[in-house]
Amino acid sequence: MGSFSIWHWLVVLLVVVLVFGTKKLRNIGSDLGGAVKGFKEGMREGGQDAPANGTVAGAQQVQDQSQHPVARETIEVSAKEKS
Questions:
Q1: How far is Cα 17 from Cα 26, in angstroms, rounded to an integer?
Q2: Are 28 and 36 in contact (CB under 8 A)?
Q3: Would you say residue 32 lies in a domain?
Q4: At a CB cut-off of 8 Å and minimum separation 6, what does 28 contact?
Q5: Where does this polypeptide localize (predicted)?
Q6: Which residues, 6 or more positions from 71, have their beta carbon under 8 angstroms from its beta carbon?
Q7: Looking at residues 33-62, what average pLDDT do you find?
Q8: What angle do CA 41, 47, 49 make, to 5 degrees?
């Protein structure tokens, strides 16, 4: 019982297709593919956005914040030691 044969996996695949249907499985596959593609693009863009000089990026960040002010709140929390 350590490993399953190809016939076991085919039966499992058949049951999954019968339960979910091919349309829903296709939608799940395309959603998953889109998420992976978006993640890869985000990682690629994130590497390009890293500035070589920190002062230029700091000036750009201040300028961006003045154009689009965002309310930032600090939440203070006190931690209690477990006894």
A1: 10
A2: no
A3: yes
A4: 20
A5: Cell membrane
A6: none
A7: 71
A8: 100
Say how far apart CA 23 and CA 17 lie, in whole Å: 9
Domain count, the chain: 1
Q: Is residue 54 part of a domain?
A: no
Structural domain includes residue 7? no
Residue 81 has pLDDT above 90, yes or no: no
**Position 46, amino acid:** G
> CB of 57 within 8 A of CB of 51?
yes
Structure confidence at residue 75 (pLDDT): 76
pTM value? 0.39
Q: pLDDT tens digit string along 54-68?
A: 444 444 555 555 555
Distance CA 14, CA 11 (A): 5
Side-chain-side CA neighbours of residue 45 (13 Å):
6
pLDDT above 80: residue 31: yes
